[in-house]
């Protein structure tokens, strides 16, 4: 019995690009693109809050 720990892998088909991995350098990633994702990701919370307010109004 024993363990194997992989030290690394390389491939000519890899999509990993070290120059854009951090999203802080280069022109490929625009931080403004994240705004749409954030708005969409938070949409369910907004809808829930609106529904909660509607229910409170009908109960009072």
TrEMBL record:
Alphabetized Gene3D superfamilies for the sequence: Single helix bin
Arginosuccinate synthase C-terminal domain sequence ranges: 1-47
Cited InterPro entries: Arginosuc_syn_C, AS_cat/multimer_dom_body
Pfam families reported in the protein's UniProt record: Arginosuc_syn_C
Family matches, as SUPFAM superfamilies: Argininosuccinate synthetase, C-terminal domain (SSF69864)
GO molecular function, one term: argininosuccinate synthase activity
Name under which the protein is recorded: Argininosuccinate synthase
């Amino acid at each position: 019995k024993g363990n194997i720990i992989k030290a690394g892998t390389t491939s000519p088909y890899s999509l990993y690009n070290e120059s854009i991995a951090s999203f802080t350098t280069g022109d490929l990633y625009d931080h403004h693109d994240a705004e749409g994702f954030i708005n969409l990701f938070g949409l369910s919370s907004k809808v829930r809050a609106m529904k909660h307010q509607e229910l409170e109004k009908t109960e009072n």
